[in-house]
């Protein structure tokens, strides 16, 4: 199912884009890792840490995670060679193949019912949960799949995307453990002269209800997606949502 929806292809394309854009991505990856390091500092030692969207692990401070926690669970739909190689000799690391939305089976059968995820909520060992550069990605492939195979409209696609994103935010708030969130929140498109052409929400206008640090990530420098424009993401990093100031859903 994950392969049919394009998750493996996506992972391979992140890998090749990373090799081309390493220098431009380095600030974003460093700030993502720093947000996680701050989260580790606030979490009880020796428990379990769950990382949603671990992917290739470019933004993961693995050494700090394995020295603070007794179990490090890397959750993704696909675990490709780079992360397998990085974690090969670490007995503390588990590569868990899971759908964080718990709704993909439904979607693959053409139903748009979005469930409230429950995974790990009852696990008392969990001391930290990290949602890592995942939130804006959660809906894109499922919605493309529904558009391609079930002909859903643009409006339906937008609504389903919102529901998936909101369900993940509610899910994070249900954990008893500390929760760290790193996500892009806005896309900025710039012309070849560097001037902004367009700006839009990366989260289908769903608001993140907490304040945090923000930074820019030039995800697609000029020439990467198109010779005429570049794409920059605005990213939000919150090391612990419980301690973050609440700005509300319309804030
Ligand atoms: C932009 S990448 C995150 C960056 C990643 N930490 C890295 O360094 O490669 C998003 C990741 O989320 C994963 N993902 C997307 N939807 C998912 C889902 N429903 N369940 C689990 N993982 C998912 C993708 O497979 C991908 O690896």
Walk me through this protein's architecture.
- There is one protein chain.
- With 251 residues, the chain is α/β, with parallel strands linked by helices.
- The chain has one domain (2-184): Rossmann fold (3-Layer(aba) Sandwich), CATH 3.40.50.
- 36% of the residues lie in helices and 24% in strands.
- It is built from seven helices and eight strands, in the order ααβαβαβαβααββββ.
- It has helices spanning 2-5, 7-42, 62-68, 81-87, 104-108, 140-150, 154-173; strands at 48-52, 71-76, 93-97, 126-132, 178-191, 196-201, 213-220, 229-238.
- Strands 1, 2, 3, 4, 5, 6, 7 and 8 form an eight-stranded mixed β-sheet that branches.
- It is globular and about 50 Å long.
- The chain starts with a helix and ends in a 13-residue tail after the last strand.
- The structure holds S-adenosylmethionine (SAM).
